[in-house]
Specification:
This protein is mainly β and 258 residues long. Helices cover 2% and strands 58% of the residues. Strand 11 and strand 12 form a beta hairpin. The chain starts with 6 loop residues before the first strand and ends with a strand.
């Protein structure tokens, strides 16, 4: 079961309202990027997305308003991107999601997570908030802005928390029906190594920038290429087999859906 990305079932519990209960392995309620490449504006995912859940397992109750402008959900989960709980952990984890779409061009979202990712004997509470807005300014031009912030107890029964945060901005331009161009800028700060462990003095404090070009070969085939650069406070990367504060990628793919 650990290799499943999605396998869940749901049923409607109200005849008059659009209220459902779902259970199983579900796509994450956190973030605007998914594990399905063609649905994302960039070839690679943001650091923010790669370090928050792509999927979750548990039970969810969700409500969608009749005009489909408001979506509310609450989850009981097995943990932070976990199919099953880790040994010795019986602490429940919870999530919430609020999405508001005032019109077809704007999506506003607030998602939360709370839980313990350690065995109960050394329990450390993790609290996380994810905010994003998607704005289709014109038919050809769109903007996505996101911000994650989380904190986790340093030790069990301790009031001191380590925190991490990440802002991201992506703009997309469609000059023709077959071409999409996107640019992304982001910053990820995890000085204490809660999510990304580097064992360096300043932890993971990294700026990232990328440019993406997509060409639709056909209705169900997309060729993509992206240039990406990262710059960090510490020498956490390798360049020419030597420690470096910078790293660069050139990534290409063909996405086919059917």
């Amino acid at each position: 079961m650990k290799n499943l990305f999605e396998a869940n079932a749901g049923f409607k519990i109200s005849k008059k309202q659009n209220i459902w209960i779902d259970a199983g392995v579900m796509p994450s309620h956190i973030g605007f990027e998914s594990a399905i490449g063609k649905d994302c504006w960039n070839v690679t995912r943001s650091i923010l997305a790669d370090n928050s859940p792509y999927y979750e397992s548990g039970v969810k109750i969700r409500y969608t308003s009749k005009n489909e402008k408001l979506y509310l959900a609450a989850m009981y989960l097995n943990g932070w991107q976990r199919i099953q709980k880790i040994p010795g952990n019986q602490t429940p984890a919870f999530g919430t999601q609020l999405t508001y779409k005032p019109n077809s061009k704007i999506t506003l979202n607030w998602s939360t997570y709370g839980g313990n990712e350690m065995p109960d004997s050394v329990s450390q509470l993790r609290v996380f908030n994810n905010f994003y807005g998607q704005f289709q300014v014109t038919e050809k031009f769109g903007v996505t802005a996101g911000f994650d912030i989380g904190m986790q107890q340093m030790k069990k029964d301790n009031s001191v928390y380590n925190n991490w945060y990440s802002p991201v901005l992506i703009v997309q331009f469609k000059p023709t029906s077959k071409i999409r161009i996107a640019a992304r800028g982001e910053y990820y700060s995890d000085e204490k190594g809660v999510i990304i462990i580097t064992a360096t003095p300043n932890g993971f404090q990294t700026i990232c920038y990328s440019v993406n070009f997509d060409y639709a070969i056909s209705d169900n085939a997309l060729w993509r290429i992206e240039g990406r650069g990262l710059s960090s406070k510490d020498k956490i990367f390798l360049m020419d087999k030597k420690p470096s504060t910078a790293n660069y990628f050139l990534t290409t793919s063909i996405a086919i859906n059917f």
